[in-house]
Specification:
The complex is a heterodimer of chains A (358) and B (115). Chain A has 358 residues and is an alpha+beta fold. In chain A, 37% of the residues lie in helices and 28% in strands. In chain A, α5 (166-174) crosses α10 and α8 crosses α9 (308-318). The longest helix of chain A has 23 residues, at 264-286. Chain B is elongated. The longest helix of chain B has 21 residues, at 88-108. Chain B is mostly helical and 115 residues long. Chain B has four helices and two strands; from the N terminus they run ββαααα. Classes of the chains: A alpha+beta (358), B mainly alpha (115). At the A-B interface, β2, β3, α5, α9 and β19 of A face β1, β2 and α4 of B. β3 of chain A pairs antiparallel with β1 of chain B, so a sheet runs across the interface.
Chain lengths: 358, 115
């Protein structure tokens, strides 16, 4: 008898990859940096045991063996791979293997059994969301994939893949069912999507994609650091700095030429400047005379994505009724999961296969 | 990192005290049981212990302990009060939204020719 498929929601963005499993009563979430780089478990164990430390992988360290290649994924890629990449600026990452490596790692982390069967709802940014690209994603992900995760042999079968537009996905969890105007501002790593719908039907005129994203903050901080302190910040340093800022924690200590560098003031200035650019884009796209201000006719106005931690307060001044989920970076994946839980077998077939010409 | 996540909204970033707990146990039956339960739930031991502390709090505030202590190998608690019953209206709203999204996608199947 075939295994019963687990329904997953996934948002494998260009900064953070999020997969939601479980059920309404006990949702389970896995998230990690969307980085993959070359690296083998054997080399890592040799290196670590040689340095006197423990060679055991920590809970959020992943080494993936897949299709005769070996990779570090997530934090381990950031820390240990020379060629770690999140595939940013490369739209083919969604179907060229990068996203599949992330997904297999996260499924392996979420499920203990060696063999897992899944059906997945995932999403693409507005700029990339075309029929051809949706099909490419489905064809890349559907199938039975054998791999090793942290040395353990695994097999994941992905039976169906439904691909949504990112903002639409969040409305599946946080939107309204009625045919009313809804606005979603999805601020991710490299892009921010502005998405307007009537009910669940997209309104192309009120939707736009911009290249403002959280990673711009890291890029600008890095350029300033290089100019003033003579070195680049590492990807790990940037990641730690942004995470600390988002969580309102003290910023990590960073050194250059033996001296501690104070980042707070500069970082705040950069966030302010990029926030102003984002505010301008929102104003431009959503301010209309007949809607009484910015998103003035909204029944729902939602800000999601990790950018909400950085720019949420600013956009709230522009749209006072703006709602921000407690974990805005999870909203798209939660919406994908909510949709997946509503689909019966025939609907999975209709929405989740690449088409009859396949 | 794995964790549970509900459907809650926030106005601003939540602030709170962070307490870090470090335990050392020799391998004993209780730890083995906790490990096994955590594995069955698909979460880390740390996450499982955290959830148990939350369950203790909820049990002291009137939620049925049988439902709070349920793990995947136990029989489902009959008519138990779910731990997340605090926001049924929101859950229903979410289900309605997901259904509306599904209906919209299915209606677009035939005229899906944007490119």
């Amino acid at each position: 008898m075939a295994d019963r498929a687990s329904v997953l929601g996934g948002d494998l963005g260009n900064s953070t990859a999020v997969v939601v499993a479980g059920n309404r009563r006990e949702p389970r979430v896995h998230f990690m940096p969307s980085f993959v780089g070359s690296g083998s478990l054997d080399d890592l164990e040799r290196l670590r045991s040689g340095g006197g430390g423990s060679s055991k992988l920590e809970e959020d360290e992943y080494a993936l063996g897949f299709r005769e290649a070996s990779w570090f994924v997530g934090r381990l890629a950031l820390e240990q791979s020379r060629d770690a990449t999140s595939g940013r600026d490369d739209v083919t990452r969604y179907w060229s293997g990068h996203t599949l490596r992330l997904l297999l790692t996260q499924i392996g982390a979420l499920f203990k059994p060696a063999r897992v069967t899944t059906r997945i709802v995932t999403c693409l940014p507005i700029q990339v969301f075309t029929k051809a690209n949706r099909r490419a994603v489905q064809e890349a992900l559907i199938g039975t994939h054998s791999f090793a995760l942290n040395g353990r042999e695994r097999e994941v079968t992905i039976e169906r893949v439904v691909v949504l537009m990112e903002g639409a996905a969040a409305l599946g969890a946080y939107g309204k069912a009625d045919p009313v105007p809804q606005y979603v501002l999805d601020c991710g790593g490299r892009t921010t999507d502005l998405y307007r719908t009537i009910g669940m039907k997209p309104d192309r005129k009120g939707s736009a994609g911009t290249t403002v994203g959280v990673e711009l903050i890291g890029d600008e901080l890095d350029q300033w650091f290089l100019r003033t302190h003579g070195r680049n910040l590492s990807r790990q340093e940037i990641s730690d700095i942004l995470a600390a800022y988002a969580q309102r924690k003290p910023l990590p200590t960073v050194y250059a030429r033996g001296k501690k560098v104070e980042l707070g003031e500069r970082l705040a200035a950069i966030v302010e400047a990029i926030g102003a650019r984002l505010e301008s884009e929102v104003n431009k796209t959503w301010r209309t005379a007949d809607t009484g201000g910015v998103a003035g006719d909204a029944a729902t106005a939602l800000m999601i994505g990790g950018g909400a931690y950085f720019f949420g307060d600013r956009i709230k001044k522009l749209i006072p009724f703006l709602e921000i989920p407690e974990r805005p970076e999870l909203a798209n994946a939660q919406g994908c999961k909510a949709l997946g839980d509503q689909l019966d077998d025939a609907e999975w077939d209709a929405l989740g296969l690449p088409g009859t010409e396949r | 990192m794995s964790e549970g996540a509900g459907r809650r909204r926030r106005g601003s970033t939540p602030k709170g005290e962070r307490v870090r707990l470090e335990l050392y146990w020799p391998d004993d039956a209780m730890l083995a049981e906790l490990r096994q339960e955590a594995e069955l739930r698909g979460v880390s031991v740390q996450q499982h212990i955290r959830d148990l502390l939350i369950a203790r709090h909820l049990a002291r505030h009137g939620v049925d302990p049988q439902s709070l202590l349920w793990i995947p190998t136990s029989p489902a608690p009959a008519a138990a009060v779910p731990a997340e019953a605090a926001a049924p209206a929101e859950e229903d709203e979410a289900t309605a939204a997901a259904r509306a999204l599904k209906a919209s996608l299915l209606s677009q199947l035939d005229d899906d020719d944007e490119d």
